[in-house]
Amino acid sequence: MYIHQVAAYLPAHIVTNEHFTRLNGLSHKWIIERTGIQERRKASPEEDTNTMAIEAAGRVLTAAPLFPQGSIDLIVGATYTPHDTIYTVAHAVQRALDVADIPVVSVSSACSSLLNAIEIVEGYFAMGKATRALVVVSEHNTAYNNEDDTIAGHLWGDGAAALLISKERLAPTDLRMVDLLTAGAGNIGKADTAVTLKPVAKGIVMPHGKDVFIHACQYMARVTRQVLERNQLDVLDVSWLIPHQANLRITRNVLENLGLPEERAVSNIEYLGNTGCAGAAIALANHLDQIKPGDRVVLTVFGGGYSYGAMLLER
What we know:
Blueprint: E1 2-9, E2 13-16, H1 17-24, H2 28-35, E3 39-42, H3 49-62, E4 74-78, H4 89-97, E5 104-107, H5 113-126, E6 132-140, E7 158-166, E8 175-184, E9 196-197, E10 204-205, H6 209-229, E11 240-243, H7 248-258, H8 269-272, H9 279-287, E12 296-303, E13 307-314
Helix pairs in contact: 3-4, 6-7
Protein name: Ketoacyl-ACP synthase III
Keywords: Acyltransferase, Transferase
Organism: Hymenobacter fastidiosus
């Protein structure tokens, strides 16, 4: 199974830390020290989860002449900030591409949804029900965010990414998916209350950030080791680590836990904020040209509800 191409879409509007200083007194220095975030993107009133996903899908197909949209036989969408819970992000992309009579699935496992979406593709490929898949991950966090919330209101950004995945290698530059491991730890700690989004009652709430921090650091490092050990690899065999883009301190803690130098981590949290399940995919899209033949890449994720996972790629 191969990732043939990846592309991202980001809204044009930039929200700097100074916006939150004016709004609720949080200083630029304080936000940087706590999160590493300098700015984030915010969708325009004309944009939403579906429109951003459609833009990302269009970009990835434009960049992939060997993967015409008529050859797509599976679409998997992922988001925890849906524009519509019935006409899902995957349906919207299918309609925009005008590809009929194929499986269309949407999934949500918080910020881990990227890997669960790819795992769904893995299953369809294994069963012989598809051979060329489009995965779209899109988050409209600002639609649900409360900017007055001094605990988490400054964390969130919007963005989307799309991945083209084939059962067979299409080009020498394809990334081979060596292994993928996902799991849930919803029975651990404050997984049921640490981060919630109840659309009927309120927006994104994070009352137990410390609990999220502790478990994110532990689980992303642990599952990275697990996926490497399953493939008889050492941590230092990893050329690039792309963690869930939640907090720069979490990334640095995971690197320290693994014994990896900071220059091997790919990060966009500084300029995009937490873009949810799209964050790691956006980072992969922006870093794709820097991955050389023989490089090994690990994407490791952790989400609210305490889902987690790691994927090992090789060029």
